Protein 1
Amino acid sequence: MEVAKVLDAKGTACPMPVVKTKKAIEEIGSGDILEIHATDKGSKSDLTAWAKSGGHELVDQAEEDGVFKFWIKKA
């Protein structure tokens, strides 16, 4: 999977991971993939809902050593 941009939102609490994701996704092209790293447990449901509401596609998600990783494809 080719990632256009990686966003480090580790150490931030709600709503910052979503706010930072919104800003970062505006900086990439349509169809590009944004990889997000977050430590806030709430980001799991927040980013999933945000991607869906914006028409973006949550391609994959994983958890690694307490870090949640998301791959969102821009609509």
Protein 2
Amino acid sequence: MRSRFRDDRGLTVRMGVTLFLLGLLYVGFVAALIVLLKSWVLVVVIVALLFGAQYWFSDRIALFAMRGRVVDRDDYPELHGVVDRLSVLADMPKPVVAVSSMDMPNAFATGRTPDKAVICVTTGLLRRLEPAELEGVLAHELSHVAHKDVAVVTIASFLGVVAGLLVRFAFYSQLFGGGRRDQNTVALLAIVMGVSAAVYTLSFLLVRALSRYRELAADRAAALLTGRPSELASALTKVTGDIARIPTQDLRTAQAFNAFYFTPAFGADPGLGRLFATHPSLEQRLDQLGRISAELGEAALPGNP
């Protein structure tokens, strides 16, 4: 099903390349584990179960982790109204609408297909944004669903999750079981941990590179669909500024889901974390929206001449 969101060839190519490279990495990773653990049945069953759980239940896991709940029209009529208008404008199925009780202003989309999509906003976002700004944010999230990059990021993140779990398993096996294991077992665990760490690092970098581009693609698609890039820019500026004032300790529980957020849960000074960021910088996003605004003949964005 095609929507009225403008196709982004660059995003499509990047998603294909990322999945291809991660597929090669995935095959090599599973093959290495089979050789090391000498049980292909065990490896395949475990990996298949983990992949199935993440693919089929990723939306529920994300909602549960972010304290989100599905809401009906009676509870949030204005929110449903905006999603209704955007879905009709984009010629897409209306996603399930959810609200998280978090005060941190943010939003995210999840779901493996457009028919199974969920868009969730926090109460902090609803409280801070004007209706036109909220429309820009929701159009951004809806474009993720239309471009199918939510499903791609979910799948692409899977290998890193498995590798990360194996690193922890191998580490704690050595830490707490070293006295009861022979040298061959310890060496095997060390190799598994090394291979898993390398796979985790490579998949982490590939997913981060894709994630930064997909956020720019979603900003661009949302601005063109609504015709009001200045409102999206205003929402970005407002949300980023408010998140920067939230204490770091309050942001840590949310940072695991940064790849899915409208704006990452970082404090005022992420430092070197920007090198591995899930999102482009605020300046990059505003610059792009400024160019789109000029193309559409819209008034200058806030903070731009």
Protein 3
Amino acid sequence: MTTKTDVLRLYKQLLTTAKKFDNYNFREYSKRKIVDSFKEHKTVDENQITKFYNNGIDELSRLIRQTAVSRMYTFDKLIIEPLKKHHH
């Protein structure tokens, strides 16, 4: 049986992995899709939680592969992306 802790851990892992996209558009789309999906399925009954959890695990493995490929190719930063600050 899938517990609330398992679901929250998966949610955190998905968001953490999505933040690893080098491309701003992929990163923001993934984060938004994850948040929206979890909000949409917030009230599912206990019988469906395991099904959605397993789908989430599959999505996590896909996301890990996609972020690895994303990091192989570099893109110029977009204007809307904050530049990393250098500490002196």
